[in-house]
Design a protein that fits this description.
The chain is α/β, with parallel strands linked by helices. The chain is 39% helix and 13% strand. The strands form 4 sheets. An 8-stranded mixed β-sheet has the order 1-7-8-6-5-2-4-3, sandwiched between helices. Helix 4 packs across helix 16 and helix 5 packs parallel to helix 13. The longest helix has 31 residues.
């Protein structure tokens, strides 16, 4: 008996040790197995990395190696949450669920056949083929099938060029003939001067899931700056989720498809990934799919990134990264399933690195054998994925492939007979009440508020709970604003903005504002969020105007311009009934988002027929703070204007700013608005407005001279410099110089400005005055237009000397320059 007891004890001990050894082995492979995974279908790049911890043999090592160093490499041990790590390892180490192999084969056949028909019919035409990574199609199919099981209703796609046309046809349900019509260039006169190439345009479609649900898909239009579309897509996702309310993150799923070189090399990717858990930007997790060709145009992986994988950028976040060999179609589908379930379980991003190759040159036009002769010698003899997969299944899919080719050939013939270009996208119903195109007078709206309305709004804007421990300075500020709202003192810019926002919210218009330090305001002028001095809990007066008001959102953004502006542009695209604003810390910082401005805001309507009412608030003004804190680069925005594509304004009074914001939200004309906002003039008495000015019916595109009647000269200007000229004129008791403010530079208010110039018929000269150097500012834009309406009078200019830098870094030099500008403006040539 004793002997048997000892033997049993030894067996239990041995079993326990074996279990511990197995766990140690598996733990090593969970951590490092991806470094030895077989991920490159051509076996040329990504050779196995020696890892001492994996130099082990035995049954447990063989099992772990098959799971973690096969055609799937999983990076998840950097995630600090043990439950999430365990969730992933349990699923990777369990017997895999079966996949629908016949459906996978069908999708691969269709994907490769589609590309080959285009190749044969339009040889030498750019299309950015998916061949080499056609596994993306069954991957997306599986994701959408599973998303439908989670009651998803809408999908937002963002992707670069590669595979875009195939995704439209094989996932979004677009008719192949519509795609071929683009190659045929049907009806070119319909887009003269506008439109975009076929692999940039967006599209809408419907995916029919097996469970009977239909998923609406929106593929976001994008420019050649590949990664910049990602924040736009996430902004659109957030807006769509907002429409659904609390269920939004389940109902709307974002899927972002990246190129490998672009993911690693373009900084906006890091900015976009940083949204993951940031308040105001979180979308409940996005699927980031790297459609990895292991090449960027002619650039090889070791030239694109300093790390092993282009996806390594994402390892700074606690999210999983799955690498999968694109030619193991079954594993591709299983990883798609796993990634989707993880997103819905934990609400975070997931990165999937789908590694394949590129069968042709970058755009089917160039010859890749010049730069990668060895790789393309391998590709030439490498079978297509549908052939590889059919052989794995032991089936002959040749006839299936031929049938798909025949179907696409028939669609191509149909396209040649079309006389009108098919629409790729249809706007959601919430755009029905808004218009783009040229300005029409009937779009104007009344933006006034009565004294009683202002007084009522002021109560909410200046109140806070009795238990709220307010900062003494903020208490004083609110007391001053209360006096403003009661008409006891002039209203400054901060209060004017609050009144504009409050009145819109009361009227049911949602307002969203973001930017660096936007809650307080860079210049300590906004204070939209108050903080209890004891425990820092926030209070937002704008959300306590009335019981049934719309929601006000204001967010301090991540320290980014490009990604945040892109996000807000995207948000404005799917929430047109709201007022969406992005504020630069200083106007100059918008330079960091120039891609968004050039390729979305300024040209989105012309290229893609897409409207946006996004407002850019750009602090502007020369106050001796140096070249990076002076100019918001007015000249750049004016150079981008044409066809009434956007509005460029510089309100010089608080009331003008109030009317401008209300006008933007209330009228149906949806155009981006660029506002050059003040800095030193935010609280200056000269820029403040009496309460009566808020009862005016509308924003004035030209602010007339009100003190001088029979001027000898007319100074035309914008912004702060005009206030300084008027102040100096008063000191000099000069009755001869009229100062006229051009409040809206584009669309240029020719009629309004002509009327004002005609009021001063005796003036012998017109002087354009600006703070900016001669080669900057609005000079080159405004002066030719002034000459047109001057009535033959000379048009002179006062400005700083042309310079490569926007402003001096010396405060004393600035004062000397500014004094000279004002002296010249008041001197004239006929004095």
């Amino acid at each position: 008996m004793a002997s048997r007891t000892q033997e049993s004890s030894r067996s239990a001990t041995t079993l326990e040790i074996d279990s511990q050894d197995r766990e140690r082995v598996f733990d090593s492979f969970r951590r490092w197995g991806y470094l030895q995974a077989q991920l490159d279908p051509l076996g040329q790049y990504l050779s196995s990395v020696p890892v001492p911890e994996l130099d082990i043999q035995g049954e447990a090592a063989d099992q772990a190696r098959r799971i973690y160093s096969g055609t799937v490499g999983a990076e998840f041990m950097h995630i600090p949450d043990p439950d999430r790590r365990r969730w992933i390892q349990d699923r990777l180490e369990s017997d895999p669920e079966p996949v629908d192999q016949q459906r996978i084969l069908e999708l691969l056949v269709k994907a490769d056949a589609f590309e080959q028909v285009i190749q044969s019919r339009y040889l030498g035409t750019k299309r950015f083929s998916l061949e080499g990574v056609t596994g993306l199609i069954p991957f997306l199919d599986e994701v959408l099938q599973r998303a439908a099981d989670h009651d998803a209703a809408q999908i937002v796609f963002a992707m670069a060029h590669r595979g875009r046309l195939s995704v439209m046809v094989n996932i979004m349900g677009k008719a192949p003939s519509d795609i071929f019509a683009k190659f045929e260039d049907v009806d070119p006169r319909s887009v003269l001067g506008g439109g975009d190439v076929k692999y940039h345009i967006g599209a809408t479609g419907v995916f029919q899931a097996k469970n009977g649900r239909s998923l609406n898909i929106h593929l976001v239009s994008n420019p050649s700056h590949l990664e910049v579309v990602a924040p736009v897509a996430l902004g659109r996702t957030r807006a769509k989720q907002y429409h659904f309310g609390e269920e939004g993150t389940d109902k709307v799923l974002p899927i972002i498809m990246h190129g490998d070189a672009a993911f690693a090399g373009q900084g906006v990717t890091a900015e976009t990934l940083d949204y993951a858990s940031v308040p105001g930007y979180n979308v409940g997790g996005a699927l980031h799919i790297i459609v990895n060709n292991l090449i960027g145009f002619t650039t090889e992986p070791h030239e694109s990134t300093s790390s092993r994988f282009s996806s390594d950028l994402a390892k700074r976040l606690p999210i999983p990264i799955f690498h999968v060999n694109a030619e193991d179609a079954d594993s591709v589908v299983r990883i798609a399933r796993l990634a989707l379930e993880y997103r819905y379980t934990f609400g975070t991003d997931v990165v999937i690195d789908l590694l394949g190759y590129r069968r042709h040159g970058h755009s089917e036009v160039d010859d890749p054998t010049i730069t990668q002769p060895v790789r393309y010698a391998r590709i030439k003899n490498h079978p297509q994925l549908w052939q590889i997969y059919a052989q794995q299944l032991g089936t002959d899919a040749t006839q299936q492939f031929k049938a798909a080719q025949d179907s696409y050939n028939e669609a191509q013939k149909k396209a040649t007979k079309l006389t009108k270009m098919p629409a790729f996208a249809h706007h959601p119903a919430y755009w029905d009440n808004y218009a783009g195109g040229p300005w029409k007078p009937e779009y104007e709206v009344n933006t006034s508020l009565s004294k009683e309305e202002i007084a009522e709004l002021t109560k909410g804007l200046t109140s806070y709970p009795d238990t709220f421990a307010i900062h003494p300075k903020i208490k004083k500020l609110l007391e001053q604003r209360a006096e403003m709202g009661q008409g006891k003192r002039a209203i400054d810019f901060g209060m004017a903005e609050a009144l504009a926002f409050g009145s819109l919210l009361k009227g049911g218009v949602h307002v969203r504002l973001s930017g660096q330090d936007s809650q307080r305001g860079t210049f300590n002028h906004r204070h939209a969020v108050l903080f209890d001095i004891n425990d820092e809990h926030p209070y937002v007066p704008l959300n306590h105007i009335t019981a049934d008001q719309a929601k006000f959102e204001v967010y301090n953004s991540i320290l980014s311009e490009a990604a945040v502006m892109g996000y807000e542009y995207g948000y404005s695209r799917d929430y047109p009934e709201s007022l969406v604003l992005w504020e630069a810390q200083f106007g100059d910082f918008a330079n960091g988002a120039q891609i968004i401005i050039d390729q979305f805001i300024a040209s989105g309507e012309d290229k893609w027929g897409l409207l946006s009412g996004l407002v850019l608030l750009l602090p502007h003004g020369y106050e001796g703070q140096g070249p990076e804190h002076s100019s918001a680069r007015i000249e750049r925005y004016l150079q981008l204007t044409a066809r009434d594509n956007m509005q460029i304004c510089q309100p010089s009074t608080a009331a003008q700013f109030f009317h401008l914001l209300r006008r933007q939200a209330l009228r149906k004309w949806r155009k981006p608005l660029v506002v050059f906002t003040p800095k030193s003039m935010l609280r200056h008495p000269d820029a403040s407005s009496p309460v009566e000015d808020f009862q005016r019916n509308h924003f004035l595109t030209v602010l007339p001279e009100t003190e001088i009647q029979n001027a000898e000269r007319i100074v035309v200007c914008t912004g702060k410099i005009g206030r300084e000229i008027r102040s100096e004129r008063k000191k000099r008791k000069d009755p001869t110089t009229a100062v006229v403010f051009l409040e809206q530079m584009y669309p240029f208010p020719e009629a309004d400005l002509s009327t004002e110039l005609e009021r001063h018929a005796n003036a012998k000269e017109i002087i354009w005055v600006q703070e900016e150097p001669a080669n900057q500012g609005a000079l080159s834009f405004v002066v030719p237009r002034l000459k047109k309406i001057s009535g033959g009078r000379p048009v002179l200019t006062v400005k700083r000397s042309a310079s490569s830098s926007p402003a001096t870094g010396s405060a004393k030099a600035h004062e000397m320059e500014q004094k000279t500008l004002i002296d010249l403006a008041l001197a004239g040539i006929n004095k």
